[in-house]
Every structure is written in structure tokens, then in C-alpha cells.
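Milestone M4 deliverable, item 7.
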Amino acid sequence: MLEMVRIARQSSLAITPDGPKGPAFSFHPGVFQIALLAKIPIVPIAVHADREWLFNSWDKFRFPKPFARLKVVYSEPIPVNSKDDFEAVEQQIRAFFAAEEKKFNA
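Output delivered:
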């Protein structure tokens, strides 16, 4: 984690918050800890494909089909100023994803 903090101070990071083993849609605290220690905001990203394969895996992995149109949506940066912010930041991230899912399925 300390290596990721060092890298985050120099470059952008992309982290899947539920990690490689899940459970799906969970947020491991390391994501918030890295943001706090590196003094960087979290920017959730939602990607929508108009055609995709949905895998029967623990995370319901989605893979765009050839020539699918993708829409990428970034949230506003969400600062993490203290450990007390972790729960509120998680709620903001969940709200962003819920709103995007609602728009996409409308």
C-alpha cells in the first residue's frame, strides 16, 4: 500500500475498490487510506456499453462486444481529508454509481 501511495503522488491510479476477489460492490478500506495518505481525491468512473457480454462470475464481469459504443462518465473529485470521511465518501461513490445505473437503464 505504501508503494501505491508513493506512486499516487506522481501518477494517476486506477483501483477496483472491491479488489480481485470481492465481494462484488464492496469497498476495501485501502482505497480510502491510499487517497488520504497520498492527499489525492477519489474520482469514480462509470462505463456503459450499448452491447456487452455479461459473465456469470462473482463480480458479474461485463465485456463490450465488438463495435459497441461506450460512454464513460467521471464524477467530480471526492476529497478524503480524514478517516472520519471514509463512510461519507463511500456513500457519495455509491450514489454516483446508482445515479449512473438509473440513467443507463432508463
